[in-house]
Design brief:
Keywords: Membrane, Transmembrane, Transmembrane helix. The structure is a single chain. The chain is an alpha/beta fold and 478 residues long. It folds into two domains: 71 residues, no CATH class; 332 residues, no CATH class. The chain contains 17 helices and 13 strands. The strands form two sheets. Strands 3, 4, 5, 6, 7, 8, 9, 10, 11 and 12 form a ten-stranded mixed sheet that branches. Helix 8 links the parallel strand 3 and strand 4. 38% of the residues are buried. About 9% of the residues have low confidence.
């Protein structure tokens, strides 16, 4: 019985690959035929074999357990599962109000119409002077005032065009702040003229997927859906303005402001690649985050401009409300050149300095103007990178991010105070080139007023305006 048990143990160990010393019959025959010695050898062999088996079984059982324990305590990096997309309700309450009787009132007047009435339309010499590369070294504003711009000098700030009747109002109630709630909801917005695909947009589609998998709700609006969105949620004058502008960059400027006004969230251009999770990018107590605009090669980089390609905003933000109102009224009244300046600028020297800069009228100039006004500051007051002083006029903290185009040929967006690189864009090739066809610069003509050619589908002015009102007491019936 002992020999049979030992035999089974030895065979089992050999199958498991454990070396076992076995005394063969031939070798046994060479040993002295002493029964006691033979049994002693068999007993020792059995004990050693059992010890080896127990040791092997312990190793086999504890090995995987040790590996799992190591994984649990972090010896191996595990990518956390993507959190489910959060539900985001429409946080801003809004209501449109219309005043049909205002349509019967006398039409208002633009500053350009006032200049024409006074015989003071700037001539081509005025615009050539304003756009001349040696403008500042050749005498500045005083020089241009004597080269066709004198009437503007004489009238600006002294005479005013007829007031325009208000035909519609959009009342918006921002969400009520609650403890622990983010001021900026977890929504990412992007827009472009068409849907993106890997064949035509290999880089942009990858960038887009990076935002889609960020854990935030993702919303994409091609041009046809953008128009339907405006028609459904805003007074008709907003959709009319959207349809009246030609360059795609201008349409995108208006739409992004509108969608942020009602929903809040983070708007990013399609050529931006995230480097952080949006929850890290945008802290919970921030109500507005936007980069300071920077224009490489410009004679003067005006720090009153804020780059609108990356904006994180709480819903119903007063600055966005003013920006939408200003842009819609400017488009529907076909503003040109000095019309924008009359509404947005207090200092005539500032007009001369920035007259070659189309973003003053749209995009970065408009966002900077609107935020300054919402904060109770001068329209062209300069911004500095970092957190601005807390203001009761706007929700949460306002953070000005750093926008830099000189870091290893990359355009970077960074939070300097936290020393965080948030996103980059450095796209080149046919995707980028196709996008620049609709850029601000395509309608710039140094011999005519900006807006008189290539910006609008026609020159039919409405002579009326709309208002966007932040109304904390708004109550809308279900």
């Amino acid at each position: 019985q002992t020999n049979i048990t030992t035999h089974h143990i030895i065979m089992m160990l050999m199958k498991r690959g454990i070396p076992v010393a076995v005394a063969t019959e031939e070798r046994q025959q060479q040993q002295p035929k002493n029964v006691f010695s033979a049994r002693l050898i068999a007993l020792i062999t059995c004990v050693v074999s059992l010890a080896l088996q127990v040791r092997y079984l312990n190793l086999a059982s504890t090995g995987p357990v040790q590996f799992r324990a190591h994984a649990e305590v972090g010896f191996y990096q595990r990518v956390p599962p993507t959190p489910p997309v959060p539900d985001n309700e429409e946080l801003a309450t809004f209501e449109s109000r219309y005043f049909p009787e205002a349509e019967e009132e006398p039409k208002g007047q633009t500053f350009t119409e006032l200049l024409a009435e006074k015989g003071c339309i700037p001539n081509s010499f005025c615009y050539q002077c304003l756009h001349h590369k040696h403008f500042w070294t050749a005498g500045g504003p005083e020089l241009c005032a004597h080269r066709g711009c004198k009437c503007v000098d004489d009238l600006f700030g002294k005479e005013h065009p007829r007031t325009m009747p208000v035909v519609a109002e959009l009342h918006i109630k921002p969400p009520t702040p609650t403890t622990g709630r983010r001021l900026i909801p977890r929504i990412i917005h992007q827009t472009y003229k068409t849907e993106l695909n890997e064949e035509d947009h290999p880089n942009w589609s990858r960038f887009q997927n990076s935002w889609k998998h960020s854990g935030w709700d993702y919303r994409y609006y091609p041009n046809n859906k953008a128009g339907m969105y405006l028609a459904r949620n805003f007074p008709p004058q907003v959709k009319q303005a959207y349809d009246a502008i030609v360059p795609g960059a201008y349409k995108a400027d208006l739409f992004r402001l509108c969608v942020l006004l009602l929903h809040g969230g983070l708007y990013v251009d399609i050529d931006i690649l995230p480097h952080l999770n949006p929850d890290i990018m945008i802290e919970a107590d921030v109500g507005f985050a936007v980069p300071l605009d920077y224009i490489p090669g410009a004679i003067v980089n005006n720090t009153a401009f804020l780059w609108n390609g990356f904006m994180a905003v709480s819903p119903g933000h007063p600055a966005i409300a003013l920006a939408v109102e200003t842009m819609v009224n400017a488009i529907n009244n076909r503003h040109q050149g000095f019309d924008f300046d009359y509404r947005m600028v207090e200092d005539l020297d500032f007009i001369y300095l920035n007259h070659d800069n189309a973003p003053l009228q749209w995009g970065p100039g408009l966002v900077g103007f609107a935020l300054n006004r919402a904060l109770g500051r001068r329209a062209q007051q300069k911004f500095e990178v970092g957190t601005m002083a807390i203001s009761e006029n706007v929700p949460g903290r306002t953070v000005i991010l750093k926008y830099n185009k000189d870091v290893n040929d990359l355009t970077t967006i960074a939070d300097v105070e936290r020393n965080l690189l948030m996103a980059t864009t450095s796209l080149t090739g046919r995707e980028f080139e196709s996008n620049t066809k609709n850029h601000y610069s395509v309608v710039a003509d140094h011999n005519i007023a900006f807006g008189s050619k290539g910006v609008y589908i026609d020159q039919n002015r409405s002579g009326t305006e709309v208002r966007i009102v932040i109304d904390e007491n708004l109550e809308v019936e279900e």
